[in-house]
Amino acid sequence: MNGSRHGTSLFSGNPSDLIGRTIAGYRIVDEIGRGGMAVVYRAIDLRLDRTVALKLLAPGLARNDTFRGRFTHESRVAAAIEHPNIVPVFDAGEADGVLYIAMRFVVGRDLRQLLDREGPLPVAVAARIGVQVASALDAAHDHGLVHRDVKPGNILVARGTDSDHPEHVYLTDFGLTKKSLSLTGFTNVGEFVGTLDYVAPEQISGKPVDGRCDVYSLACVVYETMAGNPPFQREDDMALLWAHQYDQPPALTGKRPDIAADVDAVLAKALAKSPEDRYDSCLAFMASLRAAARGATGAGGKPARADAEAVGTPGHSGPPPEPPSWARPVFPR
Ligand SMILES: Nc1ncnc2c1ncn2[C@@H]1O[C@H](COP(=O)(O)OP(=O)(O)OP(=O)(O)O)[C@@H](O)[C@H]1O
Ligand SMILES: [Mg+2]
């Protein structure tokens, strides 16, 4: 994957350059983390004298009208959604040609760091985290907002309130993805697109997306929290894109024989190539997953296995084509 090409000294210099500076009324204290298109700082909101997370987007994005329009629209919509599992957005705008977003500072780790540290999680923990993300996503979908970039780095895990709720999960970064722009050719070749581990087939082919693309990405995340790696692992991005579009995900129980076999069918349905074949909502997916993990049958009283067998690839009659050599799995099954 290529690195990002940031246009100004804001991101190209030493990350500590901005420390102590004030931008749009926020005094920058230290860097929390950075991704391909932004740097996140701990900052003090000088008006209210409280700590916030201040995200500064790479300057080039402010010049991309498509991104800018979406940023303005989606930060407004995200700020309007009151949900316990969505990071509250306090403020968003532009200062000195840089788009910024100020939000609640979440004390904890993101799920990427948690998985890198702990490896695969127990099913109960994976389900508790998955349900909270699912609830946030369904609320967003009810507001007509599709996240488009559900991945472990955008899931923040904070300490929970009590032993019944050992962790509290926040979803962040609504609509802040360049992926859909890049994959449909809006950004320049070589720009950072971000991870393709969680991208839905319809995002790849540039078809219109709805909440069911988030069902797919959530399923990739839930799979990874239980398996230790996402469903598809390939040597390069082209092969990974091919796998999302045509390959069947390997059964989770191949890696986790301790998990009830019906979970495979639930994941297969959530990871169906065509949105019509997936669960209608993220919570419906998680409810089926929990039932299957407990050894109960899937939704509608039918065994979950039957659901998986119904999963096809509409638009492709017959089996999917054989992948070319560059798209073969790294680890032959
Ligand atoms: N509200 C927040 N509170 C605390 N930490 C945060 C907050 N928002 C983001 N972070 C931290 O900052 C890191 C960087 O976030 P950022 O969104 O820039 O990158 P990313 O999501 O990992 O990758 P990408 O650029 O592909 O979105 C996150 O991984 C997270 O650990
Ligand atoms: Mg992020």
UniProtKB/TrEMBL annotation:
<feature type="region of interest" description="Disordered">
    <location>
        <begin position="296"/>
        <end position="333"/>
    </location>
</feature>
<dbReference type="InterPro" id="IPR000719">
    <property type="entry name" value="Prot_kinase_dom"/>
</dbReference>
<keyword id="KW-0418">Kinase</keyword>
<feature type="domain" description="Protein kinase">
    <location>
        <begin position="26"/>
        <end position="289"/>
    </location>
</feature>
<dbReference type="GO" id="GO:0005524">
    <property type="term" value="F:ATP binding"/>
</dbReference>
<keyword id="KW-0808">Transferase</keyword>
<dbReference type="InterPro" id="IPR017441">
    <property type="entry name" value="Protein_kinase_ATP_BS"/>
</dbReference>
<keyword id="KW-0067">ATP-binding</keyword>
<protein>
    <recommendedName>
        <fullName>non-specific serine/threonine protein kinase</fullName>
        <ecNumber>2.7.11.1</ecNumber>
    </recommendedName>
</protein>
<dbReference type="GO" id="GO:0004674">
    <property type="term" value="F:protein serine/threonine kinase activity"/>
</dbReference>
<dbReference type="InterPro" id="IPR008271">
    <property type="entry name" value="Ser/Thr_kinase_AS"/>
</dbReference>
<keyword id="KW-0723">Serine/threonine-protein kinase</keyword>
<dbReference type="InterPro" id="IPR011009">
    <property type="entry name" value="Kinase-like_dom_sf"/>
</dbReference>
<feature type="compositionally biased region" description="Pro residues">
    <location>
        <begin position="317"/>
        <end position="333"/>
    </location>
</feature>
<dbReference type="Pfam" id="PF00069">
    <property type="entry name" value="Pkinase"/>
</dbReference>
<feature type="binding site">
    <location>
        <position position="55"/>
    </location>
    <ligand>
        <name>ATP</name>
    </ligand>
</feature>
<keyword id="KW-0547">Nucleotide-binding</keyword>
